[in-house]
Amino acid sequence: MSDTSHPASLVAAPAGYTEWLAELKQRIHASQQRATLAVNQELVLLYWQIGQGILERQAQQGWGSKVVDKLAHDLRKAFPSMQGFSPRNLKYMRAFAQAWPDADFVQAVLARLPWYHQLALLDKLQALDQRRWYAEQAIENGWSRNVLVMQIETRLHERVGRAVSNFSLRLPQPQSDLARESLKDPYRLDFLGLGAEALERSIEDALVQHVTQFLLELGAGFAFVGRQVHLQVGEKDFYLDLLFYHLKLRCYVVVELKAGEFQPEHAGKLNFYLSAVDSQLKHPTDQPSLGLLLCKSRDKVVAEYALRDMNKPIGVAEYLLVQSLPDALQTDLPRIEDIERELQDVQDADNAPTGNNA
User: Fold this and answer.
1) How far is CA 341 from CA 87, 110, 208, 346, 356, in A?
2) What are the C-alpha distances in Å from 80 to residues 43, 83, 93?
3) What secondary structure letter does DSSP report for 326?
4) Residue with the larger pLDDT of the pair 124 and 15
């Protein structure tokens, strides 16, 4: 018979119990994550197979649009506790299978993304290579659906690796390629809510206040170290605007803000800062520190000339404080409204006296 005189929470833990409990919690959490991932993979593959089946039968056997509504009705009747079998979602499954004809890629890559991520890729993107790129980035960086949509709408694929830099001259491979891909141009800072004429200190203040969003814009791997970081060189004091550490590149990244056009002397000053950081902050196991000059505008040729003979790796990019979102990218597949309209046209033809039945 159990002893109920002492609540379990008050029983003294034996030696090693705390460590074992922590290990069990970690195992249970990992098991839950694997189970969730497995369920999602099965669901995505099932939806692809259903969509592929609809496509094949409509193409080969001439089934009309009424089969989708009938299938939705019959599946919901057979599986009343399952969601996702509405006519609208079945049409998305059809579009999903049409967008991704490669079953191996669906199973190996896409099945790792939740269904609503798949819908965002369908609705927002135009080309297959873009959809592939964003799908792989979403998996690698663990983006939520909202973050995925934001990255698509701000055209991340057009900005990554576009900053002017001297990385190929100052860093060995593959470090130079990794560093180049870690920067973008331009940087979207419209989440700060500042006007186009904002001063450097105002931008810096706002970036620190919105550091989570700024880290998201910087990209995966950046960790915030501090602002106005003090360095003493000789008898003089210097202050870095913003200092980050890049976990993948294993190096410090010094970010300097310029609320105007890039000038060659900006690169010289940042080169000096990087020398000081490498001397005073860099650990022997760290890679060479990187510099990023964020300017309101820059002449690409002037920037290239300015960086050519700098001995430290530096990138130059523009920032945008006020920028309306670009027009939504149109998919080369029909939107769900187009699919419904297409199927309605087929249904009208089915119901016509001379038409074929589904």
Assistant:
1) 13, 27, 48, 9, 18
2) 16, 8, 19
3) P
4) 124
